[in-house]
Automatic annotation (TrEMBL):
PROSITE patterns: EF_HAND_2. SUPFAM superfamilies: EF-hand. One of its GO terms (molecular function) is calcium ion binding. It comes from the Eukaryota. This is EF-hand domain-containing protein. It comes from Bemisia tabaci. Pfam families: EF-hand_7. Residues 24-59, 102-137 form the EF-hand domain.
Length: 172
């Protein structure tokens, strides 16, 4: 078991708390956390929590991210999260396989549900509208980024089976 020593600051003694690392799993969480620890004081802005969790391969909804934030936000320094609080919470989430991405079969079923005529593709504007207006809406930039990767250049449609195969190849 190794320890990481915090940087002592005048803000609070909490920043000087040792964080015990007991396995490679926790090292991975700490490495992701440190990318956003710009002050080198084992704290990150709460707005980075979702990004950190997603960088670990999790796919939480925004509501789930907010739940995590509520459980890890520093009570003394509003808007910040200390590694000593973040590490055990996120370790438990990952150990319990929370926020796992959808399987290829689940994604295919979702696309097929949207493809009411069973054509094997979705019209770009239809998918764009759904992504921005239904469920947990995406922002324009996110939709544009996805469309750039999914729209078939010849047909102008989203050939979802081809797209899913591309995603699966990229993940291997």
């Amino acid at each position: 078991m190794s320890k990481m020593k915090g940087i002592d600051t005048k803000t609070t003694d909490k920043l000087d708390i040792d964080v015990c690392i007991s396995n490679d799993f926790e090292k991975k969480i700490i490495e992701a956390f440190e990318v956003f620890d710009h002050g080198g004081n084992k704290t990150v802005d709460v707005r980075e929590v979702g990004t950190i969790i997603r960088s670990l391969g999790c796919c939480p909804s925004e509501a789930e991210v907010q739940e995590v934030i509520l459980s890890v936000e520093d009570t003394e320094i509003a808007g910040s999260v200390h590694l000593s609080t973040f590490l055990p919470v996120v370790s438990n989430l990952l150990a319990e396989y929370k926020f796992q991405p959808a399987s290829p079969e689940e994604l295919l079923k979702a696309f097929e549900t949207l493809d009411k005529e069973k054509r094997g593709y979705l019209e770009t504007e239809y998918l764009r509208k759904l992504m921005m207006e239904e469920g947990e809406p995406f922002i324009q930039e996110e939709v544009d980024e996805m469309m750039a990767a999914t729209v078939d250049s010849e047909s102008g449609m989203v050939q979802y089976e081809y797209y899913l195969n591309q995603i699966m190849v990229d993940e291997r």
